[in-house]
């Protein structure tokens, strides 16, 4: 059997022609020819001037897409790029801010907004699965040749986001948030069963340290490519001096037979060897910092008890605490006075049983369904019980789309109770980054990034375009979820879903 190969190439800047040559040479070396429906999945979780290092750059994608065109076989029916960006944001807005539209137009490449596509059910069979099936947008399910183009970044939930973690964007909002909790690594490992890429090319020219939405730029100057996702992620881990087996989703995918992590089982080629790549990445910081430590020295005191016991975790790495870290960093970008404006606030996660050092009048927020506390706050007895629902009770077929304007109203309603009391729970599992941004906006009377005047017009335009399209599909009876057996996955049982916004009105107030 062919050994997995990882190719490490030097690339000092975002020159599309240079990336094209590197990607074409890699495709030649790996003897790969795009065919049928070829789909490229970037990481476009957030983009634009406030998030310059969070996403796969369009120059990089242009190079890879041109190389795929160069190497296409006569059977190529479609070359497309598809993504679901960070939840609640229209993917149209993320693509617009990332400048993907002019790039795709120049190249004649189709764009898929996964939040507007029919969702296809893919059954899982491996014994360790969290669920019996996962949903994914139809273009992913029917792709004949799948190309993963992630961004080389650290991650506060999963340590790193390389190739495998990029799969969180092959689900729409309804399904992405299910199991996005203390078992997130298992979810990412399960997502591997949907599809495996024939080719991977990561944007490591300017990598992202520390966080995933607002990473600190790290001049790595590398384009890394390969043909096996586990081997690829393992080599990326080694480049930053991390044991790949310490990253749970990589370990699980390896144990399930998706590929090797042992360097002796991987061919590493290119114009830099592993030691040279490691020298470039020296000092790269990953993102696994507990929330208590993250907020030390600020007006926010965080307290984290364990999440529910399934999975045996003592901290919810994949859910609410990490979302709070991302939320504060976003707010700091939009409002430089964030830290000074924020009053003393106490935020509690999980089943916490230590002291809460709140003075009378200071606000205490219990974040997430699993928050539980029986004790004193500012000298008064407080009892908060968990309202966590076991994941077995969460049916993906009943998952609802969460609209950003609806979230603003809901979070606002939750926090209004803080006017008359000092304690509030914000429900959800997870409470998303967007909701925690909105909560902090209210608590600190900060600028709301969703209403930022420099972006209000394109955001609203993309939002209305997105919602109008999905609404028209329903009104016109277009089979929004027209899924039957896909051409490529003809053996897969599939199931129709209602449109993602069927329960959410278009009107906003
Ligand atoms: S409520 Fe939040 S902290 Fe608790 S399990 Fe869910 S995601 Fe984790």
Which helices and strands occur, and which strands form pairs?
Blueprint: E1 5-10, H1 16-29, E2 36-42, H2 58-71, E3 76-83, H3 91-98, H4 100-107, E4 110-113, E5 119-123, E6 133-137, H5 138-141, E7 145-149, E8 151-155, E9 159-161, H6 173-176, H7 184-191, E10 199-209, E11 216-226, H8 229-239, H9 248-255, E12 267-270, H10 274-280, H11 291-294, E13 300-304, H12 320-334, H13 338-341, E14 345-351, E15 363-377, E16 380-384, H14 404-420, E17 423-426, H15 433-444, H16 456-475
Parallel strand pairs: 1-12, 2-3, 2-7, 3-4, 7-10, 8-10, 13-14, 14-15, 15-17
Antiparallel strand pairs: 1-11, 5-6, 8-9, 10-11, 15-16
Helix pairs in contact: 1-2, 2-4, 3-16, 7-9, 12-15, 14-15
Bound molecules: iron/sulfur cluster (SF4).
Residues 181-182, 307-308, 316, 319-320, 349-350, 368-370, 429-430 line the site of iron/sulfur cluster.
* CATH architecture classification name of the largest domain: 3-Layer(aba) Sandwich
- State the low-pLDDT regions, or none: 479-509
- CATH first level of the largest domain: which class? Alpha Beta
Overall average pLDDT: 90
- Taken from the alpha-carbon principal axes, the silhouette is globular
- Bound ligands, each once: iron/sulfur cluster
How many β strands by DSSP? 17
User: Beta fraction of the residues?
Assistant: 15-25%
CATH topology of the largest domain: Rossmann fold
Question: Assembly state here?
Answer: single chain
């Amino acid at each position: 059997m062919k050994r997995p190969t990882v190719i490490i190439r030097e690339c000092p800047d975002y020159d599309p022609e240079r990336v094209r040559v590197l990607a074409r040479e890699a495709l030649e070396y790996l003897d790969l020819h795009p065919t049928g429906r070829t789909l490229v999945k970037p990481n476009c979780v957030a983009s634009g001037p406030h998030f310059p290092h969070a996403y796969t750059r369009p120059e990089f994608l242009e190079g890879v897409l041109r190389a795929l065109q160069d190497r296409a076989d006569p059977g190529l029916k479609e070359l497309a790029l598809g993504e679901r960006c960070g939840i609640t944001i229209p993917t149209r807005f993320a693509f617009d801010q990332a400048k993907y539209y002019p790039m795709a137009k120049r190249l004649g490449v189709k764009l898929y907004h996964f939040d507007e596509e029919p969702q296809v059910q893919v059954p899982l069979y491996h014994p360790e699965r969290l669920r019996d099936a996962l949903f994914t947008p139809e273009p992913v399910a029917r792709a004949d040749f799948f190309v993963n183009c992630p961004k080389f970044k650290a991650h506060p939930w999963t340590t790193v986001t390389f190739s495998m973690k990029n799969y969180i964007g092959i689900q729409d909002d309804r399904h992405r948030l299910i199991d996005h909790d203390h078992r997130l690594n298992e979810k990412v490992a399960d997502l591997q069963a949907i599809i495996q890429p024939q080719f991977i090319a990561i944007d490591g020219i300017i990598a992202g340290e520390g966080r995933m939405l607002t990473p600190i730029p790290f001049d790595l100057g590398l384009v890394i490519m390969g043909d096996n996702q586990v081997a690829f992620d393992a080599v990326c881990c080694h480049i930053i001096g991390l044991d790949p087996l310490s990253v749970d989703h990589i370990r699980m995918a390896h144990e399930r037979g998706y590929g090797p992590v042992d360097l002796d089982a991987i061919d590493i080629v290119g114009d830099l060897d592993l030691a040279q790549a490691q020298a470039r990445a020296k000092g790269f910081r990953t993102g696994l910092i507990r929330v208590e430590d993250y907020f030390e020295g600020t007006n926010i005191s965080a307290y984290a008890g364990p999440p529910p016991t399934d999975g045996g975790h003592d901290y919810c790495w994949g859910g609410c605490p990490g979302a709070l870290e991302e939320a504060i960093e976003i707010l700091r970008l939009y409002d430089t006075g964030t830290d000074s404006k924020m009053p003393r606030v106490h935020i509690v996660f999980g089943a916490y049983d230590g002291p809460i050092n709140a003075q009378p009048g200071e606000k205490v927020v219990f974040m997430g369904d699993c928050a539980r506390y029986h004790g004193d706050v500012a000298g008064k007895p407080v009892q908060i019980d968990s309202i966590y629902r076991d994941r077995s009770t969460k049916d993906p077929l009943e998952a609802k789309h969460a609209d950003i304007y609806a979230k603003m109203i809901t979070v606002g309603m939750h926090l209004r109770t803080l006017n008359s009391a000092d304690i509030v729970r914000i429900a959800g599992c997870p409470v998303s980054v967007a909701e925690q941004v909105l909560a902090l906006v209210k608590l600190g009377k900060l600028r709301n990034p969703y209403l930022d005047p420099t972006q209000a017009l394109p955001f609203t335009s993309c939002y209305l375009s997105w919602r109008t399209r999905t609404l028209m599909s329903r009104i016109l009876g277009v089979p929004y979820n027209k899924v039957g057996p896909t051409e490529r996955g003809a053996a897969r049982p599939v199931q129709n879903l209602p449109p993602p916004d069927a329960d959410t009105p278009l009107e906003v107030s």
